[in-house]
Every structure is written in C-alpha cells, then in structure tokens.
C-alpha cells in the first residue's frame, strides 16, 4: 500500500516541462543580447551557404581540403540551428518552456553535431598530414571514396555514440525543480534537477568525451607533430612557410574549439554553480565556430577568396 502510494506521488510530482531561464544574473536585460546573437546566427548561415555554393560552382575547389570544409559547413549550420531559434524565442517572446522530449532531443543533437565537428577536424588534419608528409601518394590516398567513407563513419559514430547521453538523462526522476539557469538544454545542467543519483550521467558523458573527442584531439596532435617534423626537415624556408600556411587556418579553429570544450567540461565536472561566464561560453561555443570558420578560411585561403569573387561576379552579371 505504502509502496504504491509512493509511486503514485512520484508520478504526480514528475515535471512535464523545463523552464529555460536564460543567462544567469542578467535575466532583466538579456534580451539586448538577442541582436548580436541573431547577427552571428545569420552570418553563420549566410557564410556557410556561400562556402557550399562556391565549392559546388568552382571546379578548382572540388579538392579534398575544400570538400571537408563543405562538410564542416553543413555540420556548423546544423549545430547553430539546433540552439539559436530557441534562444531567440526565449529572448524575444519569453518562450522559456520546453517539453522533456524536446529538451532531450536538443541534448542529443548538440552532442552529435559537436562530435561530428571534432571528427571533421580530425579528417582535415589527416588530409594536411598526407598532403605535406606524403605529397606524391596524396592523390591515391585521399580520394573521393575515402572522403565519403570518412564522412559516413563520422555521422554513424557520433549518431550512435551519443545515444546513451539523452537516454540516461530521460531515465532520471525530475520530481520537483524544473527551472534551468541556461538558454539551452545541457546534459549536466538538466540532470542537476533530478531527484535521484545523476552520477551515471556524469560518468557516461566523461567516458564518451574521452573516447570520442579525446581520441580525435590526440590524433590531431599526432598529425601536426609529424607535419612539423616533416616541415623542419625541408631545406627551403619558403617551402616550409608555404606548407605551414596551409595548416594555419585549421590550427586557429582547432585551438578555439578544443580550448572552449575543455573549459566547459571542467566547469561542469567540478559542479560549479551556474554563473554567467560558463553559460555564455557554452552558448557562444555553439554559435561562434559556425560564424568563425568561414571567415578564417576566407581570410587565409587565396583559392577560396578567388572562388568567392567568381561567385559574386556571376551574381552581379545575372542582375
């Protein structure tokens, strides 16, 4: 009798939705941040569409490095679109409520796209390693078939790999609190509201992060160590400079991406109380890379700049 009453009370008290309060400490004026965030989102979508269109139109850009960049653009747009419409709805329309299934779906999508971005960075590092360390074998190693297989592997790896994260989050018992000091559904932020033990979620996220992005980062570091060793053996300073310049854009993006991931992970695992800086950093980590990637590559890659100019001239001629 008492057991059945306990189950009944638990089911009655189970929350049906979460409330995303927004940015901690600045709820009263956070809507003013909607304009720069909306501009970042629109620039991310516009710039990545431009990159995709340019690569499709310019045959000289249909090379492995740019094909990987095109795949990265698709992932970036998916990541930004996973969070930004809801964030803008919170700031503009005070639409703070989010259903449990929608919240768990967002957790899955964020982890999936972030994992895929990490995987694409690894593919791009491997591409640069073969191009610089084994230039004569490059055309036979990095083929369209390899690019397709690597992309499918990254999609399947991350699509299946992160399933335990939202599944474990959905199995927690949310019986009282439902207000999240955040603009989006982060796994550890959501499970901190659970009435039962959330340690399995924390352990699962830590293990998956080390196995997924940790292995990606280790292989990226190995690739660039071998690249640097190969470049230092070159007799010509000009050749060494040219070889390193092809990697500079990639290194800038990798440094930003993994630095922020490590900071956010350490903050979450240390169970630091939600404050403005970590939460804002988490939001920006999902919107700045999609905006930053096209700009960095456009500024530092002559062939891509030339491709942009061709596309823009073509557009003006049609008008």
From TrEMBL:
Q: Which Pfam families match?
A: 7tm_4
GO MF, one example:
olfactory receptor activity
Q: Where in the cell is it found?
A: Membrane
The alphabetical list of record keywords is: G-protein coupled receptor, Membrane, Olfaction, Receptor, Sensory transduction, Transducer, Transmembrane, Transmembrane helix
Q: Which CDD domains does the UniProt entry name for this protein?
A: 7tmA_OR56-like
- List the transmembrane segments: 32-55, 67-93, 105-126, 146-169, 207-228, 249-270, 276-299
Q: Where is the G-protein coupled receptors family 1 profile domain?
A: 47-297
PROSITE patterns attached here?
Answer: G_PROTEIN_RECEP_F1_2
Q: Which SUPFAM superfamilies match?
A: Family A G protein-coupled receptor-like
Main localisation: membrane
Biological-process GO terms, alphabetical: cellular response to lipid
For membrane topology, the record states: Multi-pass membrane protein
Cellular component, GO annotation: plasma membrane
Write the protein's name. Olfactory receptor family 56 subfamily B member 1
Query: Which source organism?
Result: Prolemur simus (Greater bamboo lemur)
């Amino acid at each position: 009798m008492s057991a059945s009453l306990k189950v009944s009370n638990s089911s009655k008290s189970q929350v049906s939705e979460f409330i995303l309060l927004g940015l901690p400490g600045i709820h009263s004026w956070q809507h003013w941040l909607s304009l720069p965030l909306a501009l970042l989102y629109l620039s991310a979508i516009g710039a990545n569409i431009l990159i995709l269109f340019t690569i499709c139109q310019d045959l000289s850009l249909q090379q492995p490095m740019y094909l990987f960049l095109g795949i990265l653009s698709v992932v970036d747009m998916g990541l930004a679109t996973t969070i930004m419409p809801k964030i803008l709805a919170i700031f503009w329309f005070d639409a703070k409520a989010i259903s449990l299934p929608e919240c768990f779906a967002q957790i899955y999508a964020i982890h999936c796209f972030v994992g895929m971005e990490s995987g694409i960075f690894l593919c791009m590092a491997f591409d640069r390693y073969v191009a610089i360390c084994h230039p004569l074998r490059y055309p036979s190693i990095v083929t369209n078939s390899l690019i397709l297989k690597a992309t499918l592997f990254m999609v399947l790896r991350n699509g299946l790999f992160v399933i335990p994260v939202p599944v474990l989050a959905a199995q927690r018992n949310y019986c009282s609190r439902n207000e999240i000091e955040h603009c989006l559904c982060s796994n550890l932020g959501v499970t901190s509201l659970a009435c039962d033990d959330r340690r399995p979620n924390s352990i699962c996220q830590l293990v998956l992060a080390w196995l997924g992005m940790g292995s990606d980062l280790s292989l990226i570091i190995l690739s660039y160590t071998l690249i640097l060793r190969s470049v230092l053996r070159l007799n010509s300073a000009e050749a060494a400079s040219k070889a390193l310049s092809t990697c500079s854009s990639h290194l800038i993006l990798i440094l930003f991406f993994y630095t922020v991931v490590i900071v956010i992970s350490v903050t979450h695992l240390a169970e630091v109380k939600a404050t403005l800086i970590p939460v804002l950093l988490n939001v920006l980590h999902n919107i700045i890379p999609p905006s930053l990637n096209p700009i960095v590559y456009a500024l530092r890659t002559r062939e891509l700049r030339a491709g942009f100019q061709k596309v823009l001239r073509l557009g003006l001629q049609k008008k």
